[in-house]
Amino acid sequence: MTMKDKIQTLALDIFDQVSGYRQHIHANPELSFKEFETSAYIKSHLEEWGIPYTGMANTGVVGLITGGIPSDKIIALRADMDALPIIEANDKPYVSKNPGVMHACGHDVHSSSLLGTAYILNSMKAEFAGTIKLIFQPGEEVLPGGASIMIKEGVLENPKPQAILGQHVMPLIDAGKVGFRSGIYMASTDELYVTVHGKGGHGAQPHQNIDPVLIAAHIVVALQQIVSRNADPRLPSVLSFGKVQANGATNIIPNEVKMEGTFRTLNEDWRKEAKKLMKKMAEGIAESMGGSCDFNIMNGYPYLINEPVLSDNARAFAEDYLGKENVLDLDIWMAAEDFAYYSQVTDACFYRLGTGNKAKDTCYSVHTPNFDIDEDALKLSTGLMAYIALKQLGN
Fold it and tell me: Which domains can be identified in the chain, with CATH numbers?
C-alpha cells in the first residue's frame, strides 16, 4: 500500500470521528480569545493519542509529531478555533448551544480537520521523515489577530518550521474540490473610525448650525476619490463605510456623526500612503466646512501571499491526491485573514476547501446565520493536508 493509499484509507476510516469533532465544536462555539472549552477539547484528544503539546496565547494549542525517520525538515499546519457573534438560523442537531455565538466562518471545520490530520499523521509517524507542528490558533476574527500574538510568543520557533499550511472553507466551491492560488491572494485590512464634529441645532435653522451630517456625507463621497483617482488602477483597493450614526431626528441636527469603515488593498506601500491621504482629505473637508474631524485608523492584518514554490508544489500534491479535475484556480480575494501574518515571516500556503452543495443547501456565504457545510468535505480535508505535509517534507 502506498503512502497515498494509506492516508486515503485512514481519512475515510475516521470520517465519522471527524464529523463528531466538527459537530461538537459547532454546537459549542466560543468567541475570539475565549476558546477555553474548545482548547480543552483539542488537548484531550492530543493527550489521548500521546501527542505532546504546549499552550500559547492563552487558549492556543501547539502540538508536535516527530517522524520516526531522522530529518531536520519541519512544516507547520494551522487551524483557527474562534466563532462569531451571530445568531444561528440553522435547524440541525448540532446547532449552537451558545445564544448569539455561531461557527459561521468554518473554524469548527478547520479545527476538527486538523485533529483528524493529527490522528492520521500520528498513526503513520514511524513511517515518515520530518516533524509536523500542529497550530490550533485563537482569535482569527478580531484584531490584533491570534496569529500575530502566537508569532510574538514564538510559535514559529523551537522548532522552526520551513513552511506553514492552512486551509479555509469555501461554500462557493463544491464539496470534493479545493482551490489554490500562487502569489498574492488576500487583502490587507484596516478599520476606520471617524467622528465628525459640528454644531447641532434645529433643522429649520441650518444657518445657525454647522451640520456634521452634511460634512460626513461630503467626506464619504470624497474619500472614494482615494481609490478612483489616487490608486494605481491595476492595484485592487476597496474603501467601504458600513456604519454611519448621526442620532439626530427629522428636525434635529446633531453635534456629531460617527462613521466606521474598512480599507483593503494588496500593496503595503500604497496601504500606508492611502491612509495618510484619507486622513488629510477628511480633516481638510471638515475644516473647510466649519467643523472638525477625528480620523482614527486601527491597523489590521497585512496582505496574504502564498509563496509560489510551496504553493505550486502543494497544488501538484493536491492534484495527485484528488485528481486534477478537483483542483481549481482561485482569484484574488479582497477579504482578509490573519494567516497573512504567518505569510509575512515564513513560506506559507493558504488554500480553500470546497464545502458547497446546492442539493444540501450549504452554499450560504460565511459570516451569515445560515452558513453550514456538506460534511463530505471532511472525507478529504484531513487526508489532503496530511498528504501535502508529508510530500512537502520529502516523503
Answer: 3-186+302-392 (3.40.630.10), 190-299 (3.30.70.360)
Task: Write down the mean pLDDT value for the chain.
Answer: 97
What's the confidence (pLDDT) of residue 1? 87
CB atoms within 10 A of CB 319: 15
82 given a catalytic annotation: yes
Amino acid at 296: N
Cα Rg, the chain, nearest whole Å = 24
- Answering whether pTM is above 0.90, one says yes
Give exposure, 286-317, as e/b (b: 16+ Cβ within 10 Å): beebebbbebeeeebbbbbbbbeebbebbbeb
| pLDDT (tens digit per residue) in 21-51 | 999 999 999 999 999 999 999 999 999 999 9
Spot the catalytic one: 140, 337, 347, 372. 140
Instruction: Assign 269 a pLDDT band (cuts: 50, 70, 90).
Output: very high
Of residues 82, 307, 338, 375, which has the active-site annotation?
82
Q: Which helix (H) or strand (E) holds 156?
A: none
347 is catalytic: no
